[in-house]
Amino acid sequence: MQQPSKTIGILAVTQIVSWGSLYYAFSIVAPDIERDLALAPELVFGAFSWALLVAGLASTPVGILLDRYGGRYVMATGSVLCTLGLVGLSHCTGVVSYYVAWTLIGVAMALTLYEAAFATINRKLEIGSRKAISTLTLFGGFASTVFWPLTAKLHTMLGWRDTYLWYGAIQLLICVPLHLWLGADTARSKLRDPVGAPRSHTLAEALRHQAFWMLALAFSANAFIFSAMSVHLIPLLGHLGESAALAVMLATLIGPMQVAGRIGEMTLGRNTPPQTVGKLTFSMLPAALLVLVLFGSQAWAAASFCVLYGLSNGILTIVRGSVPQALFGRENYGAISGAMAGPSLLSKAAGPLAAAAILRYDSGPLILLFALLAMSVASLAFYLRAVATEPPGQYAEAFDKGIS
Q1: What angle do CA 288, 291, 294 make, to 5 degrees?
Q2: CA distances from residue 173 to 20, 70, 148, 281, 326 in whole angstroms, order as listed
Q3: Mean pLDDT in residue range 355-373
Q4: Of 8, 72, 115, 365, which cross-links 182 as Cys (Cβ 3.0–4.6 Å)?
Q5: Ramachandran quadrant class, 393 (left: phi over 0; alpha: psi -120 to 50; beta: rest)
Q6: Quick one: average pLDDT of 87-97?
Q7: CA–CA distance, 329 with 312 (Å, rounded to integer)
Q8: Residues near 315 by Cβ (< 8 Å), separated by ≥ 6?
Q9: Model's pTM, two decimal places?
Q10: Is the pLDDT of residue 94 over 80?
């Protein structure tokens, strides 16, 4: 087995670079892409949603590949596709070449982002995979902190085309070698479940189990809410009566709260079953939205929402990586978690568009907030049902003790 520090160190760098260049950079350069290509905003932002849709469709086959071949070559291939997509984006001249580039980027997302990294950790680390996932997400939380100002600086100096060209070069020169440096993964036949635990489930067995679908629906509903709020939060706070400056300041609380939540999970929650951590995490979001619905015009309520929203979003990433292994075992973790992630990525693509449609129907914030509150309650109910109907056995207990 590979040393955890090497695996985490490699994936920490590649996750920061990949999230930063594929996901966070777009919001900075999108207005200039719209102007330079003379495309409608719906086409410009629709391509980003299309990439998330492609990532969702690719997540299950990518998970199967990760189970079969490990992360070394699969993630390195993803970095090569990142390069091709980003370079293609830097040279696009119209809507067709623009969407072709984002299609490549969508496949690259499935091959390089968290789900692929979690599956790689699962195969490489026989002991302490939950702790490794928590540590990785802590580092990954700095992607926006690094790449928003970096992209703004490069965009000012070079323009959006050369910014994406440089990001493509970074993928090729840094991420590809690092992923290859991960080394060979544990042979599939040697993956062991803890003593006394049930055998690992196959993908087909997981798909036949109610817990899988309840968990997939819970994650999907959360992804819809988080993606919608990530785009529309500041305008919503403005509609509720907050000044533009205060809305931006309150929104900046979310990033540090995500990091704080992950630190709390690694310290205070390290010996708590991941299913229990998930119950707290899924409960935070409806509580946050309820405060915003009832008292959103007051600054303390908006601040409370941002704190709870950030904590929930930060910890949820860890729950998404740890609970599927706790319920279904580690041998086919990549395929199962990939299949589970597919609906979430589709929801992430749909969230901003659906929220925009609701706001066009009613410019006020209440209909959207009530809809998101209802979805958050549904996501909590789905999650509670999932962990109440989990496959029988003591796997979760062994997983919590770091055996997996």
Answers
A1: 150
A2: 16, 21, 21, 38, 36
A3: 82
A4: 72
A5: left
A6: 96
A7: 25
A8: 261, 262, 264, 265, 277, 280, 281
A9: 0.79
A10: yes
